[in-house]
Each structure stands twice: as C-alpha cells, then as structure tokens.
Design goal:
Elements (H helix, E strand, L loop, with lengths): L7 H18 L6 H5 L8 H34 L15 H30 L33 E8 L2 E6 L11 E3 L1 E5 L4 E7 L4 E3 L8 E3 L5 E5 L5 E6 L12 E7 L1 H39 L12 H12 L14 E2 L4 E2 L6 H4 L5 H9 L18 H4 L2 H16 L2
Parallel strand pairs: 1-5, 4-10
Antiparallel strand pairs: 1-2, 2-3, 5-8, 6-7, 9-10, 11-12
This protein binds heme C (HEC) and copper (II) ion (CU).
Length: about 425
Amino acid sequence: MRPSTSFRPAKNSILFGIVLIAALLLPASASFADFIAPQSGGGTPNAEGIRSLYLWIFGFGCVVFFGVGGLLIWTVLKYRSSKGAVAVRVHGNNRLEVGWTVGAALLLVLISVVTFLKLDQIKNPPNSSASGLSTPKNVAFNSGPAKPSLPPNGRSLNIDVNGQQYLWRYTYADTDTNNLNNVFSYEQMVVPTNTTVSLSIRALDVQHSWWIPELGGKFDAVPGYTNYTWFKISEPGVYKGQCAELCGRGHATMIASVKAVSPDEFKLWYAGQKAAILTSEKEAAAARNKLIAKDAAALKTAPTSESPAAAAPVAAADGKKIFVAGVPATGALACGSCHTLGAAGTKAAVGPNLDVVLKGQSAAMIKASTLYPNKVISKGYAANIMPANYGTSLTKAQLDALVQYIDEAVNGK
Ligand code: HEC
Ligand SMILES: [Cu+2]
C-alpha cells in the first residue's frame, strides 16, 4: 500500500476546480437569471413566453436529471458488493423497460403540449392597451411572401428595421404613401409603452440579424426579403442589442437599442424628429438652389450667340432669366439646369430637350407640363425629378412670362 499522502494532489486539484468555477460564476451572479434562461424584460409577452417555456422545459430536465442520477447513485450504493462477490445475472425486466419507454414518451408529449400552449403568446401579438398609443391600421412596409405579425384588430405602430453596414435604420410608417417624408432614426428606436409595435425587418446590403434579447427572439435581416416580429413593452426603459450576424468589419459596432417611453413622451419625440427632418431637408434644398444658381450665373456670363429672344420685350426677357437662373429666393430651380433650349443657350439633358418635345405644342400644354410635371411622364424619363413646386415658387406673372418665352423660343410666334 502506498501512503495516503499520494492522493493529496488529486484532492487539491478538485478543490482548485471548484474554486475556479465559483470565481468565474461570481461576476455573472448579478445576471444569474440570464445564465439559466433567456432574457426577458419590459413586460413584452413574447419574450416572457419564451422564457417561461424555457423554464418549464428546464424544470422537466431537472426532474429527469436528478431522477436518473439519484436512482443511479442509490443503486450503486445499495447494491455495492465487496471484492470477489459473484454478480447476479439479470435477463431483462419487462416492467422496467416498458416503464422507461412510456415515461420518456410521456415526457415528450408533455413538452409538446406546454410548447403549443405557449406558442400563441410568443408568436401572436396582442392588441395595444387602452393606455397605449392609438395607431392606424395600415402597415406601410410590406413586401415578400411572409405575413406581418399583426394583433387581432390590425392596429400597430409599424417600424421598418433596416440593417445596413454598420447600423440600423428605423423608419416609422405613417398613413400617406410617400415613404420619403417618414420619421426615421438610427441606432436607437424610440417606442411608446403599452403599444403593440410591429417590425418589418429588412437589410440593405448583406445579411444582418435583429436581436434585442430582452424583447424576444432573433430575426434575420435578409436583402430583398422582409421578416416580421413584434413586441409590446409595458415598462419604460432602454433595451439593448447588437447585430447578431457577422456582417463585415464593423459588425461588432453595429449596436441597437430600443427606448420605451410613455405615449405622450413618444408623441413629443416623434413631432421633434419630424420637425428636425423637415428643417434639414429645407436647408439641403436651399443649399442645392444656391449651387444651381451659381451654375446658372456662370452659364449666363458664358458667351452666347445673340438670339432674337434676347431682344424680346420685358416679359420675355424675364422668362429667359427664370429659365436660365430660376428664382433662388423662392426655391424655383432653373429649367435650364435640366433642359436643353437653344434660344436660352442651355444644354442640360436631365429632362427632355425642349426644342424637340415642345415643337408644335400649345402654350397651355407648356404651362400644364410646368405646373404638373408628374401628370404625364415623358417617355424614357422618371417621375419626381422635375420639381413640382412651380405653382408656388413662381408668381402668376412670372409663370406666364416663362411660358410665353419658351413658346416663342421654340415655336417662333
Ligand atoms: C431638376 C430637373 C428639372 C428642372 C429644374 C425642370 N425640369 Fe422639366 N422635366 C424634367 C424631367 C426629368 C422631365 C421628364 C419627366 C416628366 O415628364 O416629368 C421634364 C419634363 C418637362 C416637360 C414635358 C416635356 C414633354 O416631353 O412633354 C416640360 C414642358 C418641362 N419639363 C418644362 C420645364 C420648365 C418650363 C422648367 C422650369 C420652370 C423645368 N421643366 C424645370 C426635369 C426638370
Ligand atoms: Cu450587421
């Protein structure tokens, strides 16, 4: 027999292992709940459903683990024999074998039943509460074969969640069909509490994955496809997440957060955001007009052949000025920055060549096309490129002078 001290190192290393594991778990103890089951937060029913389903199945697992393990330990201790004992030969035990087969099957049935009971809460959004934001019925961001997750009454705050390298853009659906004037934000989504929020998840470039662990499961953001999920938060707070699909170099910095505030605070935020977007769009338009005016001024000083129109009466001269330089003060872009017109010396090709397309046309037609450019779209050109603001950015006199000038320039009347 070797001295018992030779067992010391083994005992020490077991002790060391236990201490090490405890030390590793200690920092996690604050969020120890997350260590066992998926996170949930803010009172959103889907995440709570996922978590409680997980805990149920975890409970069944514990019963099996401790049941089988306990039985094993009990058997080992009870039937242990000393050295040299002759083992009993056992050939099958019907009751035992049927028992563990039926037992396991029953357990699977139990797990399926509990899962199906929980599925509705996880998958199907409830209506917004009375204390939530009252939201319209339409869902604006809707494409692809999948069906959006909508509550029974069809009303939700729909937000388009668009993954792009390396940030998330949130666009809030509204009731008009113009998606360019919608409120949007990046990285942080602000939502009202007690309101069902339906998400249309998309991607611009590569695949991303939307995941705010406390608010439910992951959803892939796939280019060209829309995925849908939802949440309904009852407790104000900030819920954080991160892109969950390696999408490139900046993947680690592709953060997301959802900030839940009261419906009143949300309305304030929404209105502020809308105003800020409008202001910056106005500023951008003004800057654009400045550049166009600068270009037009340069164009004007460039030598042009003396055309008959230049010597025309005052109204016609005004018309030419508007055509070449626009009216920057009111945001009327110069026609000549997009159209060719020989008499005005402009050679731009963004829109149709007016010398060609207006030949033989009436002044009324020219006026109508200037006022309502999207009524009839010229073949080979896109809508919404020609400004539709000439009805307001030009005075009636300016408009008439402009139309007369173009008519005379093209049709020589
Ligand atoms: C930003 C570029 C742009 C500006 C500025 C612009 N247009 Fe246009 N215009 C277009 C485009 C593009 C089309 C063709 C698409 C359409 O019909 O809306 C067009 C179409 C037209 C047409 C119809 C042509 C046809 O085929 O029947 C007329 C007339 C016209 N423009 C006149 C004007 C006048 C007059 C002005 C200045 C008051 C002006 N445009 C300013 C881009 C512009
Ligand atoms: Cu990503």
